[in-house]
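Researcher: We are triaging several targets before committing to wet-lab work. For this one, the compound of interest is pyridoxal-5'-phosphate. I'm pasting the protein sequence and the ligand SMILES. What I need is the predicted three-dimensional arrangement of the protein with the ligand bound, expressed as structure tokens, so it can go straight into our comparison scripts without reformatting.
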Amino acid sequence: MPSPGPTDRPPSVDILARSIADVGLPHPMLVDAARAAIAAGDPESARAFAIAASRRMLRPVINATGTILHTNLGRAPVAVHQDERYTNLELDLISGGRGSRMATAGDLIAKACGTEKAIIVNNCAAAILLVLSGLADGRDVVVSRSELVEIGGGFRIPEVMARSGANLIEVGTTNRTRVADYANAVDDPATDVGVVLQVHQSNYKIVGFTEAPTIAQLAGLDAPLVADIGSGLLDSRCPWLKGGPPGWLAEEPAARQTLAAGAGLVTFSGDKLFGGPQAGIIAGDAELVGRCAEHPLARALRPGDLVLSALQDTALAYLSEDGDAIPFWRMAALTVDHLRGRAEAYDAAGVGDVVDVRSTPGGGTLPGVEIDSVGIARIGDHRQALRSLDRPVIARVDDDTTYIDLRTVHPDDDGAVIEALHSLG
Ligand SMILES: *Cc1c(COP(=O)(O)O)cnc(C)c1O
């Protein structure tokens, strides 16, 4: 039997779909809601199905969780402004010739890292895939057994390696790997090492009886060193913060210092500590970056002008040492005094108790790090009610108390959050 097309659809579905047109969704989505309601044996529920479909679509939310890079909320928030206009994405406005989409934002990021060249792909997973494909397809890659990890979302280093066509050589042990372990593999006449890969332990820690070589030691080996620093801290001195680096950054590896210590390339995410849009950055030695850029996969992994212009803005903010222009750093640097000042408005409105809370950087970076913050507490679990508002407020619950952490709430949204808390009664 042919499947029913638009013309032979049972009229009841169509009539039901039209009866909920005020939900404001395109007709085919209303038809889906009507069908689902009929299948559930309750045509009256069509409106609820349609509203649920509309609630699932992307919309701005207020992050009151205190997790600054919240994976479920798109990691770093960024402002993207673009009118309905063309951009000079691949046109060189000086010469009139073909320009490179990779060059502009890439060159700015390279400058901000103090290195020669950078290119941009869709995320850090893509960056690693491209680096391994570009430098080690059909060749060997040496990795420590302590770094054969899963980064999240099922992204596993050994599996990416297999996809890239590179052959994995594991060295050392789970807790201790020495530079000699790497050197033995690199210098073995039976191997053909294209890359020595060091993967930052972003989202886990190995503690106790441990040992790992420094970047400078690995850079002395006879093969290009690629450091996947993941989190994308640009410079450990944080010159974009007036107060210098916050204490909680502690041992986090930074792109500039990793390259200065001798890594040939670094790879990192655009939307973690870098604070930009979702992207992956490959930065370092011009010849190595060039080999990645020339690989056919580069075409499949490249971002469009929305992402590139947001990255360009982020890179310009770094070069101007303007941390306030980068939402992640603006939020990370807020002082407890400032947050307490904002909490007064909540206190005055009588919507909850002002309490000390702890924010986290999040995004799988800096495990265990907590940043003193100020929040509003309400007894009970109000997450669902806050989530169902027109401007959803995403809160955290601990021990049957709902917490609003002011660090991740934009100051312009304080009024909306007060109203949201008010609506709880
Ligand atoms: C987060 C992370 C990745 C993956 O980055 P995406 O941008 O999410 O693809 C890779 N390596 C390390 C070390 C990371 O921390």
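Researcher: Any quick observations?
Model: The first helix runs from residue 11 to 19.
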